[in-house]
Specification:
Helices cover 16% and strands 41% of the residues. It contains four helices and 29 strands. The protein has 469 residues and is an alpha+beta fold. Strands 19, 21, 23, 25, 28 and 29 form a six-stranded mixed beta sheet that branches. The longest helix has 37 residues, at 416-452. The protein folds into four domains: 24-119, Immunoglobulin-like, CATH 2.60.40.2300; 132-213, Immunoglobulins (Immunoglobulin-like, Sandwich), CATH 2.60.40.10; 228-272, no CATH class; 278-408, Sandwich (Immunoglobulin-like), CATH 2.60.40. The protein is flat. It has helices at residues 2-24, 386-389, 416-452, 460-468, and strands at residues 28-31, 35-36, 41-47, 57-61, 64-66, 71-76, 79-85, 92-104, 107-119, 126-129, 133-135, 141-148, 154-160, 165-167, 172-174, 178-186, 197-202, 205-213, 278-280, 287-292, 295-305, 311-318, 326-328, 332-336, 341-348, 359-368, 371-382, 393-398, 403-408.
Length: 469
C-alpha cells in the first residue's frame, strides 16, 4: 500500500514536470527545413513572449557569428515570422539563437533558446522574395521573385494548399544566375484554409511561403482628408470642423462657389487662367500590340500634375471597345496636388477572352473639369495552335521605357510527357544512325575480304600445263 502511494505521487510529479512548460509557456523556434544551401532563404517561426528585434537574433555557424539581413514580421500576440538570405558559407552545422534579458527578483538574467540546422551545399541554389505574402480583399494577383544562384537550370513547380490561390503555370525553368517571377491569382473571399500557403518545389527541396490575409481598417474621417463628409459644410470645414470654419479658404471648390474659394458666399473670383498641366510620363504617345491570344499583358501607366494648382475630381475611363479586354484598378482620384505623380495598373486579356483577328482600340482618358488627356491603345490578337492555346504567356509592359519583359514564357517549356516523347524520338534516331554506321562498316569488311579471296587468273600456258599434270 505504501509502495502504491509512493508510486502514485511519483507519477503525479512526472506529470507536473511534463506539463509545466505548457502551462507557463515556452519560447520555441520552428524552422521550415532542416537543411539549406548557401545563398538560399531561411524561413522560421518564433513563438515568444518577448518583443522580438534583430538584436535578439543571431546566426552561429561553427561557433562563429554570421552577419545576416534579417526580416521580422510580428503577426499576432506572441507569433513572429522571420527570414534571411544565407551568405556564401562552407558546409557546416548552424544554430539560430534567440537571447533576451529579463529581470527576476531585482536581478537581470539572460535567457536564450535555439534551433539547429545544417548547411549542405548542393544544387539547386534558389532564394525567394518575399518569404511571406500579405493579401487584402482587393488583391487579385501576387508575385514571388525566384533567383537561381546556381550554375544549372532549375525547374520550379508552384502549387498551393488552397483552391482559391492558383499559379499561372504548373512549372517554369529558371536559367543559371538569373531571376524570374512566379505569378499567382487569388480570390481572397473564397479562401477556406486557415493556414494558407504556396509551395515551390525544386529539385529535392521546397519553400513553403505563408499567405496572410490582412484586414484593411478604414480610416475614420478627419478634417484634412480632402473629402466632404461627417456633416461638414464644405470640404474639411464647417460642421464638426469648427476650427476650420472658413470654407472660403480650404483650397476646394464647394458650398456653391463659382471657383476655388471664390464666388457665391466667398465673394467674386479673380479672373485667373489656370493652365491644365496633367501629362503622361511615357516616351511613346501610344501603345499598340499584336500578340497571340494566349498572352496576358500587365503594366503600369504613370501621370503627373505638372502645374502649380491642384487638380480635383479626376476620372479615369476607357473608350472604344477597350473595356472588353482591358481592366484598370482606378476609376477616380479625389485630388492630385501640384507636381504630384500617381499611377494605375492595367491588365489586358486577363480572362483570355480576346477574339483572334478583332482589333481592340480606343483611349485611356484621364479628365477633370479643368481638362483631359488621352492615351491611345490598340491590341490585335492572333490565333495559336490548339496545343498551346491553354498555355498562358504573361508579359509585363514597361511602357515608360518602351520595353517589354517576358516574365513567364510557356512556349519554350515542354510538359514532362512532351519531353519524354521528344527523348524517345531522339533515342530512335540515334539507334537508326548507329545501325546504318554498323551496316556500312560490315559491308566494307565484306568487300575487303571478298577482294582478298578473289581467284588469280592463270595464263593459257599455265592452264595447259596444269591439265597435263
Amino acid at each position: 500500500m505504501k509502495f502504491f502511494k509512493e508510486s502514485k505521487l511519483f507519477c503525479i510529479f512526472l506529470l507536473f514536470v511534463f506539463l509545466f512548460p505548457f502551462v507557463y509557456g515556452e519560447d520555441t523556434i520552428k524552422i521550415e527545413r532542416d537543411t539549406y544551401s548557401e545563398y538560399e532563404s531561411v524561413q522560421f517561426w518564433v513563438y515568444s513572449e518577448i518583443l522580438l528585434t534583430p538584436e535578439n537574433v543571431k546566426l552561429i555557424c561553427n561557433e562563429t557569428k554570421i552577419d545576416i539581413g534579417l526580416l521580422i514580421f510580428h503577426l499576432k500576440n506572441n507569433t513572429y515570422f522571420l527570414s534571411f538570405e544565407l551568405p556564401e558559407l562552407e558546409e557546416s552545422d548552424c544554430s539560430i539563437v534567440i537571447s533576451y534579458k529579463k529581470r527576476i527578483n531585482a536581478t537581470l538574467k539572460t535567457f536564450s533558446f535555439y534551433k539547429n540546422f545544417t548547411i549542405k551545399n548542393e544544387e539547386p541554389y534558389l532564394c525567394i522574395k518575399p518569404s511571406i505574402v500579405f493579401v487584402t480583399e482587393d488583391t487579385k494577383t501576387f508575385a514571388i521573385k525566384l533567383s537561381n544562384k546556381g550554375l544549372n537550370k532549375t525547374e520550379v513547380k508552384p502549387k498551393s494548399n488552397e483552391d482559391a490561390i492558383r499559379p499561372f503555370r504548373e512549372s517554369l525553368i529558371i536559367e543559371p544566375l538569373s531571376s524570374l517571377n512566379v505569378y499567382f491569382s487569388v480570390d481572397v473571399k473564397n479562401i477556406t484554409v486557415k493556414e494558407t500557403s504556396v509551395i515551390l518545389n525544386y529539385g529535392n527541396k521546397f519553400y513553403e511561403i505563408p499567405v496572410i490575409i490582412k484586414k484593411e481598417e478604414k480610416e475614420a474621417p478627419t478634417c484634412n482628408d480632402g473629402i466632404k463628409n461627417q456633416g461638414e459644410r464644405g470640404v474639411d470645414c464647417g460642421g464638426p470642423c469648427e476650427a476650420i470654419d472658413d470654407c472660403c479658404n480650404n483650397g476646394v471648390k464647394d458650398e456653391g462657389e463659382e471657383g476655388v474659394d471664390c464666388g457665391g458666399v466667398c465673394g467674386p473670383c479673380e479672373i485667373v487662367e489656370k493652365e491644365f498641366k496633367l501629362k503622361f510620363l511615357m516616351k511613346n504617345k501610344s501603345l499598340s500590340k499584336r500578340a497571340p491570344v494566349n498572352k496576358i499583358f500587365i503594366g503600369e501607366i504613370k501621370f503627373k500634375n505638372d502645374g502649380e494648382y491642384p487638380i480635383n475630381q479626376i476620372s479615369i475611363k476607357l473608350d472604344g471597345n477597350l473595356n472588353e479586354i482591358v481592366k484598370i484598378d482606378k476609376k477616380t482620384i479625389n485630388v492630385l496636388q501640384p507636381y504630384e505623380t500617381t499611377s494605375l495598373n492595367i491588365v489586358v486579356n486577363e480572362d483570355k477572352n480576346a477574339i483572334p483577328g478583332k482589333l481592340y482600340y480606343g483611349n485611356l482618358i484621364v479628365s477633370s473639369k479643368e481638362g483631359r488627356i488621352e492615351f491611345p491603345m490598340s491590341f490585335l490578337f492572333t490565333n495559336v495552335a490548339e496545343e498551346v492555346k491553354n498555355k498562358t504567356e504573361l508579359v509585363e509592359l514597361n511602357i515608360s521605357k518602351e520595353k517589354e519583359v517576358v516574365i513567364v514564357n510557356y512556349t519554350e517549356t515542354k510538359t514532362p510527357k512532351e519531353e519524354l516523347r521528344e527523348e524517345k524520338k531522339k533515342k530512335i534516331l540515334r539507334t537508326i544512325v548507329v545501325v546504318i554506321i554498323l551496316l556500312v562498316v560490315f559491308l566494307v569488311i565484306l568487300f575487303i575480304r571478298a577482294k582478298a579471296k578473289k581467284p588469280k587468273l592463270l595464263k593459257i600456258e599455265e592452264y595447259v600445263e596444269k591439265i597435263k599434270k
